[in-house]
Amino acid sequence: MVEEFNINKALKAISARVTDTQREEQNKLNIAGRTRLKQNAIQNQIARAAAQELAVRDSIRMLESEPDSEIKTLRLRNLIERLAELYSQQGLYEDAAATTLDDARREVYQRSADAIAKPDNEVCNCPPEIVTDRAKQRHIRVDSTQKVETLVRNGKPVSLRVCRTCGDVNAY
Ligand SMILES: [Zn+2]
Hints:
The protein is of the alpha+beta class. 61% of the residues lie in helices and 17% in strands. Strands 3-4-5 form a three-stranded antiparallel β-sheet. Strands 1-2 form a two-stranded antiparallel ribbon.
């Protein structure tokens, strides 16, 4: 009787362990799948932007040979901004900053370039914020840095993180 009980207990434990392992494996597969999807999306984005970059460069070259006019200037400006954005989509943030004619956008591109260039372990030491969750009546620690957007580094997606306290940026 006691033995039977122990066997049942052992069998239950074994089946629970198998399930846990399987769940863990499935989890790993899911995460790997999501990472692959994200990576594919970035690679598609880079390929698309590279192709469009060529077309925009051609348009700029053709436009340059036309006689000067207000419309020509306007169209050139638009194409140059488009080119800067296409550089940015390929992770070429320095090129994007050097190309744009818009100060605000240059700042954004330069921030991305700086964040990518900075060593990953160079992070500020700002303490986490303590936020009160009223519904659950407890305090939560919230990291002082926050993901702002996804950047491209060497063809791979990285998170641009900005510190809410000191404004420090990094991408990893
Ligand atoms: Zn900070």
